[in-house]
Amino acid sequence: MRPQHINEVVGQQHLVGPGKIIRRMVDARLLSSMILYGPPGTGKTSIASAIAGSTKYAFRTLNAATDSKHDLEIVAEEAKMSGTVILMLDEIHRLTKPKQDFLLPHLENGHIILIGATTENPYIAINPAIRSRTQIFEVKPLSESDIAHAVQRALTDKQNGLGKMQIKLTDEALKHLCSATSGDLRSALNGLELAAKSTVPNKKGTILIDLQVIEECIQRKSLVQDKDGDAHYDVISAFQKSIRGSDVDAALHYMGRLIESGDLISINRRLLTIAYEDIGLANPRAAAQTVQAVTAAEKIGLPEARIPLAVAVIDLCLSPKSNSAITAIDNVLTDIRKGGYGEVPLHLKDAHYAGAAKLGRGADYKYPHNYPHDWTQQQYLPNRLVGKQYYHPKTNGRYEQALKDQYNRLKKAQQKKQTAKNDNSKN
Fold it and tell me: Which fold has domain 144-218?
């Protein structure tokens, strides 16, 4: 069912629709090398096949991970003789440097039109030398209507599809096939083929494919992602952002997808990060509860781990939020990297070694516990940073409200003493 012409490509109309970039290239016969990236089964190889079929150029397919440099040399020799070859290179993110170095000159002279395919983010996973010589296009998951169209075409196509078989696909089964494969047309067609060829025809010779048959044939179907794929990290990102946005149902949904993929490690790490980054001082109890939930999840493992993890997710979603701690330390690091630091005040320097007193180390240091309320005014920041404020308290929770009140009291007392000290020095 692989398309032989650009008009036969299912979905991806933002690339192959009328007036869109790949369609323009094909119509003008001005092809350039490109990288197509997106989830499995969404049409990367199909687009390459359709481009070759529409332009009548020779078409070859290789895999960057399994095919050798010698295989590339064969394609290059063919390109020299025929003029132009379209090379579909799957898993291009796994292209080794020797293969890359061989390929680059052929891309430069235009003998080979490279169409690379990858499920990885090319801006992260692909070498800049290849990336700079290609256009990058994102291939998106197909819609349910796109998959339904392709399935119906497969059922009627007598040459390449299942049209010679007498198949009846129920509406319920079709709907489930289109929705449960999550935009992966290859999975949908593979499931349909398995269902058709493994179902015994009835007395009339009809192969009835109902919901139960489809469920058995596509197995783990809907929301499971490749743990190493780009889409998996998108789910992790959506998981944290849903908790940050206090959407319990969305957060549980994305965690469910991570559980189905078996990625307990990412869930635990992300929850611990969220507890301190997004909830933080607004509700320290939630952070402690999260640590307990993650510890329990690690000890009992999946599938039972889903229970304490769900408790943690709901708690974090509905907790007051504050990012004041991460903002404070990031403000400090930004300042330091810009040169915002100075010499440690003399009275704060290490004074435990022999001879430190002669150097004035630790002189005039005031031990706070010797004063009422275990506090006394003295300078702690370097001279050039006196008065600098990195921490800006929030008031979304009672705990941080109390911290803010205490912070402001101490700041005020410190400034009052500093003002009096400045006045005395003027007098």
Answer: Helicase, Ruva Protein; domain 3 (1.10.8)
